[in-house]
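Researcher: I'd like a structural prediction for the single chain below. Treat it as a standalone chain; there are no partners to consider.
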Amino acid sequence: MKKLVITAWILLTAIYARCQQHPPLAEVTNWSRTAAVLTPRWWPHVKDKVKDQLTPEDFNRLATYNPWESKPPQMSWHHSVYLAKGDSARFIRKMNELKCYLIASYTNTLDSTKRSDQVILKIPYEENRHWNDTVKWDVVYVVVPKEYVRMK
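Model: Treating it as a single chain, here is the predicted structure.
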């Protein structure tokens, strides 16, 4: 019996680790509704809600994540469409080329009057190096209301 329990635990741990290495691909249906992860106010509020969903690496990165240093302006609706007076349809088409991974979901209760389900997406450079030859990043994290994300 003890061997069976240990074997089951090892199998479940392996399955969990595999899922963590390959989170599900996600598609954003409204890029104007994405937000940069705002660590100073946001992280303390959600870290306990997402801790068990994240790899230790993602958890540690999010704890110190600074979107202003990490996210290329080419990925920002505000910069690309609003400030640069760019074409929103072109921006959306370009953003839809990115491989995004859903790594966590939670209910946002930071503003008690507006509870909402949100997800954290991870956009790694290595799988998106083709996206724009002029920019390079390590990992970009964005927060999106769950209603604007569809699984691929």
